[in-house]
Amino acid sequence: MRIRKKYIKIFAALVILISLITGCSNSPSSENTNKIENKNVMKVNYIDVGQGDSILVQVNGKNLLIDAGPNDSTDKLISYLNKQNIKKLDYVVATHPHEDHIGGMDVVIKKYEIGQFYAPKKTANTKTFESMITALKSKNLKINSAKAGINLDLGENTKCEILAPNSTNYEDVNNYSAVIKITYGDSKFLFTGDAEKLSEKEILSKNYDIRSDVLKVGHHGSSTSSSKAFLDKVSPKIAVISLGKNNDYGHPHKETTAELKKRNIQTYRTDIDGSVVLISDGKKVTKQ
Q1: 140 Cβ contact list (under 8 Å, min separation 6)
Q2: Which Gene3D superfamilies does the record cross-reference, listed alphabetically (predicted)?
């Protein structure tokens, strides 16, 4: 009788143990939970590449890289991308052929699988530009024209449209900049490259819907961009300025920062804040 009771106790203990193990295995781990949650957000990385631009947009399992910073920040850029476990860039956009935007592009092209590559129809007689073209040829990648009216497929609940350039002939190379608007759910992000007031005026004249929650401030905060009319139409809650510490250009210019301050726009700067990461759940945008 005592032996039978002993076996009953052992059996009961085993049942409890099995139920505990099963319960644990059915509960999603925190890692899996994070993966599930991350599928329901858009992550925008304004990467600190010093005096230049590089932005990584991650949404619906897809990656879009806008610009690749200057030559001297290439290692920093690659390190950042590797930390995000980037294996493939579905889209890469070189907004315009200035060194501070395409310096690291040749290395990016060689290192990662690239889906489609976009750039405006503007060449440059520089070693940096030639290196980018050589890298593209080595991977048999063609350059798709970045111009107003082009849309990129970033998956469900997401619209990615190029709003500029709106012309094929500019005196200033900055105005060839690809201007991109991404809408994720109800949240909107505008990326302006180095587009200056002329390009901004053309965008306004086309009456595009450029209202956005977040504005990547044009030309590193230069006074040649961010016209009052443009800022009024965009009406952002958040602005991000990508620039280097103690740069030779005096960026950001006082006129620009004054206009942002006057409009009570929360402003982040990569020279002060380092890389800026914003997360959208489709309704609100928060800083990570």
Answers
A1: none
A2: Ribonuclease Z/Hydroxyacylglutathione hydrolase-like (3.60.15.10)
Angle at 192 between CA 50 and CA 68, to 5 degrees: 40
Q: Is the pLDDT of residue 10 over 90?
A: no
Give the tokens for residue 9.
């106790």
Alpha carbons 39 and 266: distance in angstroms, whole number: 27
> Judging by DSSP bridges, how do beta strands 143-145 and 42-46 pair with one another?
unpaired
User: Looking at residues 256-281, what average pLDDT do you find?
Assistant: 98
Dihedral sign (CA 96, 97, 98, 103): positive
Contact assessment for residue 237 and residue 267, using Cβ atoms and an 8 Å cutoff: no
**Domains of the chain from N-terminus onward:** 40-287 (3.60.15.10)
From 20-29, 143-152, 256-265, the region with the lowest mean pLDDT: 20-29
286 by Cβ neighbours in 10 Å (0-12 / 13-18 / 19+) ranks as exposed
Q: What pLDDT sits at residue 76?
A: 98
- pTM exceeding 0.85: yes
Residue 131 has pLDDT above 60, yes or no: yes
Residue 114 confidence (pLDDT): 98
Q: How far apart, in whole angstroms, are the C-alpha atoms of residue 113 and residue 234?
A: 34
User: 152 pairs with which residues across the strands?
Assistant: 160
Q: What percent of the chain has pLDDT over 70?
A: 86
User: How far is the C-alpha of 97 from the C-alpha of 232, rounded, in Å?
Assistant: 28
- Minimal CA–CA distance to 55: which of 91, 14, 15, 107? 91
CB contact set of 180 (below 8 Å; sequence gap of 6+): 66, 93, 160, 161, 162, 163, 190, 191
Sequence-ordered strand ranges (E) for the chain:
42-46, 55-59, 62-66, 88-93, 113-119, 143-145, 151-152, 158-164, 179-184, 187-191, 214-216, 238-241, 266-269, 276-280, 285-287
Residue with tokens 């505990």: 20
